[in-house]
Specification:
This protein is α/β, with parallel strands linked by helices. Helix content is 34%, strand content 16%. The strands form three sheets. Strands 5-4-3-6-7 form a five-stranded mixed β-sheet. A two-stranded parallel ribbon has the order 1-2. Helix 7 crosses helix 9.
Length: 304
């Protein structure tokens, strides 16, 4: 008999002895699945086990892999295969992925390397800081803004990037003021820098604010932040910082939010990007939206 079962509820796996157990994506299972449930089921039959997984930090799966790499251990054997080892995947496909993928995700998902930085999103933050601050726009340069809305607990954040030199030139962050004043503050900052496009989060209260700003003649475009759209938004910014394609202001709030921003691998195989519990990511989202505008400045968009 061959049975396929989910390990999301480990105790449901309990039962008769096994001849062979295959644990797929083992690193994402609770350690007790192997130690307390599956291994005892192999005892009476002296059965075998095969562990397959993308790495997830250095957890219990990593510990077993290290045992398998030890030539003095005759009970376990370890094997390593990168995505390139698959003969069905074209080389040009991998090259295309590599150009658009951040280093942490590339190393874990495609090279199958164990990493202590599995939750790190933004790398090269301090190296991206440019100490000089510019107070006025430069003639002939294009400026793109991003805004993440907030009111009470959360903050509204506005980021403006010089798209010509790819530098963050202005950052504003505030809360506990009305929507009219927030729009006025955005309007003043956008006019000061001669901003060509403003990318604003359109979720929830964002939509009526965008409509009000558009009625005033501001070049605002909406971005709906969803589980599907957020990943490429954040990954594009992470790639820009990692490859030093964008310079940052030496702003302690922004640098702190970037440093603490986390990546969580979900059981279903996807990712979730977010600030740690109790912390904010307003400046991160505003910067990501502005960078999205820079990267799409040559494209045609419809207003949300």
């Amino acid at each position: 008999m061959i049975a396929v079962r989910s390990a999301h509820h480990p105790d449901s796996l309990r039962g008769e002895g096994l001849d062979l157990a295959v644990l797929d994506e083992a690193a994402y299972m609770q350690p007790r699945v192997w130690h307390e449930i599956v291994r005892p089921m192999l005892t009476t039959t002296q059965g075998s086990a095969l562990f397959l997984s993308t790495p997830l930090g250095k957890n219990w799966f990593y510990d077993l892999f290290r045992i398998g790499m030890d030539s003095a251990e005759d009970e376990f054997a370890a094997f390593h295969f990168s995505t390139a080892s698959n003969p069905l995947i074209a080389t040009d496909e991998l090259e295309s992925i590599r150009r658009r993928t951040t280093e942490p995700i590339w190393r874990v998902e495609y090279l199958a390397h164990f990493s202590d930085e599995s939750g790190t999103v933004f790398r090269g933050i301090r190296q991206a800081v440019q100490p000089l601050r510019q107070n006025t726009p430069s003639a002939g340069h294009s400026y793109i803004a991003g805004i993440d809305w907030g009111r009470s607990h959360d903050f509204t954040a506005i980021a403006i990037i010089d798209a010509t030199e790819r530098r963050l030139v202005a950052l504003d962050r505030f809360n506990e003021i009305g929507w009219g004043l927030q729009r006025g503050r955005l309007r003043a900052l956008a006019q000061r820098w001669g901003t060509q496009v403003i990318w604003a989060e359109s979720n929830s209260i964002g939509a009526p604010n965008i409509e009000a700003l558009q009625a005033e003649g501001l070049p605002v475009r909406g971005f709906a932040t969803t589980a599907k759209s957020k990943s490429p938004l954040i990954e594009s910014l992470a790639l820009a910082l990692e490859r030093r394609q964008l310079s940052l202001l030496d702003d302690p709030v922004l640098l702190g939010e970037l440093a603490s921003y986390a990546l969580e691998r979900l059981p279903g195989g996807g990712y979730r990007y977010s600030a740690p519990p109790g912390m904010h990511d307003d400046t991160v989202i505003a910067l990501a939206l502005a960078w999205h505008g820079v990267m799409n400045s040559g494209a045609r968009f419809d207003f949300a």
